[in-house]
Amino acid sequence: xxxxxxxxxxxxxxxxxxxxxxxxxxxxxxxxxxxxxxxxxxxxxxxxxxxxxxxxxxxxxxxxxxxxxxxxxxxxxxxxxxxxxxxxxxxxxxxxxxxxxxxxxxxxxxxxxxxxxxxxxxxxxxxxxxxxxxxxxxxxxxxxxxxxxxxxxxxxxxxxxxxxxxxxxxxxxxxxxxxxxxxxxxxxxxxxxxxxxxxxxxxxxxxxxxxxxxxxxxxxxxxxxxxxxxxxxxxxxxxxxxxxxxxxxxxxxxxxxxxxxxxxxxxxxxxxxxxxxxxxxxxxxxxxxxxxxxxxxxxxxxxxxxxxxxxxxxxxxxxxxxxxxxxxxxxxxxxxxxxxxxxxxxxxxxxxxxxxxxxxxxxxxxxxxxxxxxxxxxxxxxxxxxxxxxxxxxxxxxxxxxxxxxxxxxxxxxxxxxxxxxxxxxxxxxxxxxxxxxxxxxxxxxxxxxxxxxxxxxxxxxxxxxxxxxxxxxxxxxxxxxxxxxxxxxxxxxxxxxxxxxxxxxxxxxxxxxxxxxxxxxxxxxxxxxxx
Amino acid sequence: xxxxxxxxxxxxxxxxxxxxxxxxxxxxxxxxxxxxxxxxxxxxxxxxxxxxxxxxxxxxxxxxxxxxxxxxxxxxxxxxxxxxxxxxxxxxxxxxxxxxxxxxxxxxxxxxxxxxxxxxxxxxxxxxxxxxxxxxxxxxxxxxxxxxxxxxxxxxxxxxxxxxxxxxxxxxxxxxxxxxxxxxxxxxxxxxxxxxxxxxxxxxxxxxxxxxxxxxxxxxxxxxxxxxxxxxxxxxxxxxxxxxxxxxxxxxxxxxxxxxxxxxxxxxxxxxxxxxxxxxxxxxxxxxxxxxxxxxxxxxxxxxxxxxxxxxxxxxxxxxxxxxxxxxxxxxxxxxxxxxxxxxxxxxxxxxxxxxxxxxxxxxxxxxx
Lengths: 532, 369
Fold this sequence. Notes:
Chain A is of the alpha+beta class and about 525 residues long. Chain B has about 375 residues and is an alpha/beta fold. Chain B has eleven helices and 19 strands.
C-alpha cells in the first residue's frame, strides 16, 4: 500500500505533465503485477463499488475521532474532501503504515458487500487502525471516493506505453472496453498482442483555431467552406476488419455509448474513417447540448434516455476510404468522397452530413452569424477548400468563429469554499440580479474565470464582509459586481428566479460598477425571449 | 450596577478600562501592551508600548527606532492604576507573551498567539492559571494535529540532502520572524554558507546584534554568483514566491513551511515542490490542553475558527464565546498568507526597491514581515 499511497501523493503534488508520466511509468515498472492491475483499474475510472453508505462511514469516523457530528462536518467543509478529512481526524495509531499491498487491500474491501452494518463498521475501522495518514486517505478513496487527481486516461496510457515500449494508440485500445480486474491479469490486458490493435487506431484530430479579427482577412470567400459549429462530441468513426470503433476527442473509445450508430457496421464499406460531431438529434435537427449531457457519463443507457436523448452523427470529413489514408487530399476532394459515401447509404436518420453553408461573400456569412443559436450551433467552422487534414491544432486552414456568449452583470451574494486545490479559499460564488420587488434574486453559481490574484482579492473581501453563516455557505455583503457569461438560457421551475442558465462563468470583474448598477431579472427574461 | 469587565473587546483592541491599557491594538492608542512583534499584533502609531524585552529588537525595527517602548521580563509584575499586569511565555516566537491581568482577585489571561512545543529558540510556553482566558484558534479544528517538530525537521534535512545530491538549490519559504529562527535552530546545518532574502537576513542580523545565538546568514544580492547556489539552502519569505528574484536560483526546489500545508488543497494551491507542516500556533490537541491547564471558567475565542471552537468548549462544559478581532479575522490564515493578496507587480516592485535601498529599509517595506 505504501508504494501506491506514495504514488498517489506524488501525483497529487505535481502539476507538471512530464513529472506525472514519469511517476506513473516508474510505478508500472516496479510495482507487483497485481498492484499494477488494480492501479490501472483506478486510473481508468473502474473503481469497484463496495456498497458502503457514506453517512455511516462519516459516523464511524467521528466516533473513532471522538468528536460530535457537527464538528466532523465543519472539518469536512474546511478540507473539502471526505477521505482526506477522515484521514486527518482519526487517531494516528500506525504512523509506519501497513504491510499489505494494494491488491490485498482490494480483496479486503471486496469482503464488504454482504456484511451486516456492524461487521462493516468493524471491518473498516479496524483497517483504519493499521494505516498511516496518507494510506488512510488512499484507502478511503478506494472505499468510496472518486479518483480525481489530475491524471487523465491519456497520461496513464502514455506512461504505460513508455513503460512497456508499446505504441500509445495500441495501449489506449487495450485499456478501453470491458474488463474486470478480478478476471484478468496485467500481462493479459496490457502485454498480450491483440489482433484488433491496429484496426481500432484513430487518426489524431485536426483542431481549429479561433478566428482573429475579421473573417474577410482570410482572403477570397470562394476559397473557403463554411459549416455550422456543432455543440456536440467530436468523434471519429472507424470501420475496419468488420469492426466498428467510435473514438471521441478525449481519445476515449466510446463505441458502446452510442448504440444508435452501431448499424454503421452493416452499412459502411470496410476501411472507412469519418470525422464529425455526435449530437443529440430529433426531427431532423440537433437538440441543445444540455440534452446530450443527460447521457454523457452514464454507464447504463436506459430505454428512457435513448428515447429522450437520441444521438446522430454529423459527418464533416473523411480520413480513410477503402483502407487508404486520404488525409493528404484537399478538403474539397475529401468532402466529395464523403458525400458520395453518404449518398450510397441506405435510408436512415442517424448518419447525416454536416451541411455546407451557401454563401455568396463574407458579408452574407456575417449576416447569418447571429442566427447560430437558432441552429443550435456555436457559430461557424471555416475551412480552406485546398487544405489537407493535419494533426492537432494548426493555424491557417481551419478556423472556428464562435458567437459571443450571453452575459449579464450580477452581484455576488453567497460564497462557499472550494475544494481540492482551492480548499480554504472562497471560490464558489452565487450571483444575483435585481428582482421585480427590488430585492436581489440568485440566478447562477459560477466559480471559474478569475485569475488566482483576483480570487485572492475576492476571498479577502468575502472574509471581511460575511453577513451570515449557513453551514459552509456565507452570505456576503452585496457589493461586488461581475459580468457573468453563459451559453444558454431556459425557463426553470426549480430556480427561484424562474430561469436557468447553462455553463455560467465569470467573464470579468466589473470593478467599475456598483451593486445598484447590476442587471435585473426583467433583463434576463428579455434575453430568454430573444434567445428562443 | 453590573461590574465592568476587566478586559473588553472594543473593536480596536483588547482593552482594560480601569488601567486604560490596550492589548495588541490595531489602531494608534495611548498605552499599548504588545504580545509579540508580528505585524497583525504589533501595529504602528501608539504613544507608549510595553512588551517583553526579547521583542524589543524587532519591534524597534518594524515600528521605528524611536518608539516609546518599555520592556519587562517574564513574570515581572507591574501595576497600572491598581491593576496588576505580568507577561508570561507564549512560545510562539521570540519574545512572545501571554498577558496576565489581575484586579481585585480576578485574573484574566490574553494569550496572543502561542504553541506548546519547545522550539528551542522562543522561551517555552507556560500555562497560567486564570478565571478568564482569551485564546487564539488559528488551527482550532480537530484536523490539525502536528507531528513532533523533530520529524518535520528531519524531512527538511532529507529534502535538502536530496537537492544537494542533484545540485539544486533548496529554497525554503516561511515567515521571516519566528519560523526561520526555529528552522535554523533545529535542522542539521551543513558546513556551508546559508543564503537569505533581505527580509529574513535583516531579522536575523537584528537578533544576532541583540545577542541571540543564531547562525550568520549571507544576503543574496544581485552580485552573488549564481553558481554558488548549487546545492545550497536559501531562506525566503513567502512573498518571494513567483518573483523574478527566485528564478536566479535555478535549478531549485521550493519547500514551504506552514501549518496550512497539512491540507492537500492548500499545498496544491501553493504549487510548491514540498510542503512542510510546521506551525507556531497550537494544534487541536494542544489548544484543548492549554485551555484546560488554565483552569479558566470562561474562555473567549479570538482569531481562527472562533465560532466552532467556542461551540466545542460550551459542549464540553467550559463557557465560551467568540470574539471578533483584527488578528486574522475570519482570514484563517497565518500572517504570511495575507502576502498572497499582494499582486505580482507589487512583488516585483518591492524586490526592485530592495535592491535600490539596501537591506534595512527594504525590510520595513516588505510585506513578508
